[in-house]
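User: Quick sanity check before I run a bigger batch. Here is a single chain. Can you write out its predicted 3D structure?
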Amino acid sequence: MIKYALSCDRDHGFEGWFGSSSDYDDQAARGLLDCPVCGSKAVRKQIMAPAVAGTKARGEAPAPDARMREMMMTAMGEVRRQVEDNFDYVGDRFAREARDIHDGKSEDRGIYGEATPKEVKALVEDGIKVAPLPPAAPKKSQVN
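Assistant: Done. Predicted structure follows.
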């Protein structure tokens, strides 16, 4: 398959896929190509750079998925650091303290700690906003 950048005599740009270069030539000669925007039959190929498959010898950028994963891990680490630096750690008293803050029995502040799935479910069902803290990055000694 080959993809061509095409345009009509009214400068509407679009793409066309063809089995081969000769398929494009054949369809153009028989008047089978038309602009999807205005229907003009005066369609022509645009100048375009070839797409060559292969890999770069060096300095290749990571794939978009790898870059996205790295960005997300960095962002999650920053969220965790901000919480640890600015919120009060309440340990396994998290559910009780979150409920007390919600009910006005304790000072309104950011907290973090541990809670069981059952405790978290009860907090959510009662309209108390909670969110899981991103996991801590593994220590270098734990990484292969």
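The two ends are 43 Å apart (CA to CA).

User: Great, the batch can go ahead then.
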